[in-house]
Amino acid sequence: MARIAVFAYGSLVAPESAAQTLGPRPMPPLVASLAGWRRRWSQARDNLAVEKTFALADGEAPRWILGLNIESISDRDGSSINGALIEVTEAELERLDLREMRYDRVDVTAQVESEHDFESVLAYTAKPAHFAPRPPAGAVVLANYLAAVEDAFERLAPGQLESFRASTGPPPVEVVTATLVRDRIPLGNPRRW
């Protein structure tokens, strides 16, 4: 049977986050990098219309929440981003597709820089309807999401948080503390962000 991995570049790097969707992993994530791609805060979800709505302390619900995304760089200027490889089965990919409902699954096997023996490596990139090359007016980043991502990279391996920050840059919008106020979240999806 072919071995498949997912290149994780955000919250999925955290073993506990991956376990919410996939169950406990027998192997820890494998440090890797992805050449010819960049990571940006360019995935936008409509906080008022989707399966989960977050509100600020004053009750106001921001319209847009930004998440991390990867974008192919056509000029292949030597850029790469750090992340982790997580082994998955076909059934687990279906669960990830539900979790990553605003993303398309793409094959990145040829761009992965890591010693691995996976026959296929996949990653998730924002669907056109959720791709925001520039943040929509009033967009925010959830503090819980940013903290979870940074903690995951800090625990991944020495220097990985610094590499994450250098290759991503700070959020281009305000980072806010918000609370989940409406929940129609499919099983296996995070509720903290």
What does the model show?
By secondary structure, the protein is an alpha+beta fold. The protein has one domain (4-183): Gamma-glutamyl cyclotransferase-like (Hypothetical upf0131 protein ytfp, Roll). Helix content is 21%, strand content 35%. The chain has helices at 15-22, 90-99, 143-156, 160-168, and strands spanning 4-8, 30-35, 37-46, 52-55, 64-72, 80-88, 103-107, 112-113, 120-126, 140-142, 174-176, 179-183. The chain has a six-stranded mixed sheet with strand order 7-9-1-6-2-8. Helix 3 (143-156) packs across helix 4. It is globular, with a radius of gyration of 16 Å.
Secondary structure layout plus pairing:
Layout: E1 4-8, H1 15-22, E2 30-35, E3 37-46, E4 52-55, E5 64-72, E6 80-88, H2 90-99, E7 103-107, E8 112-113, E9 120-126, E10 140-142, H3 143-156, H4 160-168, E11 174-176, E12 179-183
Parallel strand pairs: 1-9, 10-11
Antiparallel strand pairs: 1-6, 2-6, 2-8, 3-5, 4-12, 7-9
Essential attributes:
193 residues; six-stranded mixed sheet; two-stranded antiparallel sheet
The total count of helices amounts to: 4
Which superfamily, in CATH terms, is the homologous superfamily?
Answer: Gamma-glutamyl cyclotransferase-like
The major sheet is characterized as: 6 strands, mixed
Query: What's the helical proportion of residues?
Result: 10-25%
Shape call: globular
Shape-level CATH architecture? Roll
- Structure summary, number of beta strands: 12
State the CATH class. Alpha Beta
Compact description:
With 193 residues, the chain is an alpha+beta fold. Helix content is 21%, strand content 35%.
